[in-house]
Amino acid sequence: MSSARPLSPAFVRLPLAIAVLLAMLAPWWIARMPSGRSFPGFVVPPSAEHAPEAAFFKTRIVNPGSPQSKAHSATLVEMPGGSLLSAWYAGSGEGASDVGVYTAERGADGVWSEPRLAISRERVTQDLRRHVLSLGNPVLFADENGRLGMAFVSISAGKWSGSSMNVTWSSDGGRSWSPVTKLVLNPFVNLSSLPRNPPATLIGGGWAVPIYQEFLGLFPEILWLQPGRGGFSATVSRIAGGMSVFQPALVPLSGKRAVVLLRDAKPGRQSLMATWTADGGKTWTAPTDTGLPNPNSGVCAVRLPDGRLLCAFNDLSKGKGGKRENLRLAISRDEGRSWLRIATLEEESGREFSYPFMIVGADGRVRMVYSAHGSQIRFAEFNLAWIDRRERGEGL
User: Fold this and answer.
1) What is the pLDDT of residues 367-389, one digit of tens each?
2) N or C: which end of the chain has fewer CB within 10 A?
3) In 220-327, where does DSSP find H-type helix?
4) Around 374, how many Cα atoms within 13 Å sit in the side-chain half-sphere?
């Protein structure tokens, strides 16, 4: 019997080199220090009073009769004139090759247009000149001139941990989109940066986009898209370590202050966490428990015109562990340190309602999209008068 051949030196050196590289980069990756980044501060609309109106709440299905069996992770933006654009990913299943990003518009008449395919996997493959398996997690934002941006992920290997973030632009209200550009955000072959919640506008232009990482742990971060040479610059800073909190919901409180609500995947904790900054996002407090039980699912929050904070989340208060069978609203009058549940938007045993995405319109009304039953994108709209009644316990 012939003896086994010894391993070649090159075969031994390659894994060793990879291990050394990971060891060198891991401390930086865990910390994500914000050196060299600009933190200009957040644009916070001044507190304002709007014309009195009767309390109202209404819902619609954005994609009725959708042929796709999976529709998820919807986003929403207000455009000039008050029209709305929503986007989400849809296909035969999460991570499937037929998944694309779809959009629908709501005009002044309050009617949603037929959904249409805005970004396909084939188009992204062509634009990036690389193989793409699937798409996901679109997030829309708009500048003061009405130009729209869309951040989304493309998956080239595995699932979400093998995704990369891209951006595209529209100057015609989302009817057409510029060639897709891949954002290079980290040294680990740019893997696993995903957007999720509404961006915050920055002083001087640009956006703070809440994102998260699923590579070598779970981490909440901010993508800073700011004016720069060639159009804009893209840098990232870490909100918190610990490797269990992620999917940040960023709510500016003033020019330099903000609060972030966090989904927590730590076994046994099952609660939303919160962290605050007082220097424009450069540093953050250690995450603390909000007192809102949550089954490790997405959360969204906004600042209302009167300064109160509104949160949409899946609740575990009735002891239903590990499920997303309800969608509730909570209000805070102390910048997110304590919360009061005020309404149940959805609740049905055996069904899922998840990934709320909220914005506050120029008229002070709250608009929200969220996933329902796995294949529906639902839209909810309500005003401050309705929130006030709910906070007083009326109509609960």
Assistant:
1) 999 999 999 999 999 999 999 99
2) N
3) none
4) 10
